[in-house]
Write a structure and sequence with these properties.
The chain has 206 residues and is mainly α. It has nine helices and no strands.
């Protein structure tokens, strides 16, 4: 009975998160109420408050549900201790691009977080969480590029911080524009080519 109750609770939580994705994408986060999400999920507002403290907590859980597999992939790739750190960074970037292109939930969540949410009021804490995640990814890139220089894969003339910012600019720029209009270009194809071109440019620095 306890197991069944937990399963039902988990199903309800996922139904709420599914509904939040749909309603946030349609109306924007600021113009969406918990009552609207409850109605879309077929639950009461009380059920939402059972699982989430407020709209910001629900929003963060929606993001985490999609990006937790990416965190797992990041841990897996970092554990390789690859001989060539640049190949590791390239694989991470391409994996992310491919997931966004292939899985609709990534498109919905990224479209919401980048284009349909104002990070003010109760949503300000979500902005802080995103900045922390972005800074961590930037540090991973910077450390890997510095290691690539030490191992002779890159010229000492390459500035690790600037190169790391460049990686983020390429990846984020591709995804931001694609989520604005996903018919603009084929993300997986163009994205992989752009990433490979950027890393080839770093390697060619003398």
């Amino acid at each position: 009975m306890v197991r069944k109750t937990k399963e039902v609770a988990q199903e309800t939580r996922h139904a709420i998160l599914d509904a939040a994705e749909r309603v946030f994408q349609e109306h924007g986060v600021g113009h969406t109420s918990l009552a609207q999400i409850a109605a879309a999920a077929g639950v009461t507002r009380g059920a939402i408050y059972w699982h989430f403290k407020n709209k910001a907590d629900l929003f963060d859980a929606m993001i985490e549900r999609v990006f937790d597999p990416l965190e797992a992939k990041l841990t897996e790739v970092l554990a390789r201790e690859a001989e060539d750190p640049l190949q590791m960074l390239r694989d991470l970037a391409v994996y992310f691009i491919e997931r966004v292109a292939a899985e609709p939930c990534y498109l919905r969540v990224l479209e919401i977080s980048w284009h349909k949410c104002e990070y003010v009021g109760e949503m300000a804490t979500s902005r802080d969480n995103h900045l922390e995640c972005g800074n961590r990814y930037l540090s991973i890139n910077e450390d890997a590029i510095r290691l690539a220089i030490e191992r002779g894969y890159l010229s000492p003339r390459v500035d690790p911080r600037r190169a790391a910012v460049g990686v983020m600019a390429v990846v984020d720029g591709l995804v931001v524009n694609w989520t604005l209009d996903h018919k603009l270009f084929p993300l997986a194809d163009y994205g992989t080519a752009a990433i490979d071109t950027y890393f080839a440019g770093l390697r060619a620095t003398v």
